[in-house]
Amino acid sequence: MGIEVEEFGIGFPPRAIKLFTWKGTDFTLNWIPLGGSIRSRAKTTRMYRWHGSCQPWKRIPVLLAGVAMNLLTAVLVYTILFSQMGIPDTHSAVVAAVEPGSPAATAGLMVNDVV
User: Fold this and answer.
1) What is the pLDDT of residues 56-90, one digit of tens each?
2) Is residue 47, in this structure, part of any structural domain at all?
3) Nearest to 45 by CA among 19, 6, 11
4) How many domains, in total, are found in the chain?
5) Domain that holds residue 49
């Protein structure tokens, strides 16, 4: 889109490490692991000033790319979690504890019973 960017950060600042520089843009890994951030070459780093200085046909794809990357990251994280841990079985439960005199004890449930 021709928008000059000084820094592209994964996560929110403060910066943890600088990963590399490519075509004059620093790629960084930041301490707060939510979303991402950019610092444009404008005199200010405030996002609302950046939005005001760009034409709408440039702003819309850039903003949609940010939303799409957040969605893609969520799908990737859930895919990795489910592939490592498996999908939870919600059709049965294992009894962890039975209090004496409770309805479960009266019914004869014991620890490690599968319900």
Assistant:
1) 787 788 778 878 888 888 899 889 988 988 877 78
2) yes
3) 6
4) 1
5) 5-85
pLDDT tens digits, one per residue of 10-61:
888 899 999 999 988 899 999 988 878 877 765 444 555 555 567 778 778 8
Asked whether residue 98 is assigned to any structural domain, the reply reads: no
Residue 44 lies inside a defined structural domain of this protein: yes
| CA–CA distance, 58 with 79 (Å, rounded to integer) | 32
C-alpha 77/C-alpha 63 separation (Å) is: 22
pTM over 0.70: no
Using CA atoms, how far residue 93 sits from 88, 97, 115, in Å, is: 11, 12, 5
φ, ψ for residue 76, nearest 5 deg:
-65, -45
DSSP per-residue codes, 57-94:
HHHHHHHHHHHHHHHHHHHHHHHHHHHHH-----S--B
| Torsion sign, CA atoms 84, 90, 94, 96 | positive
Q: What are the structure tokens assigned to 103, written together?
A: 């309805």
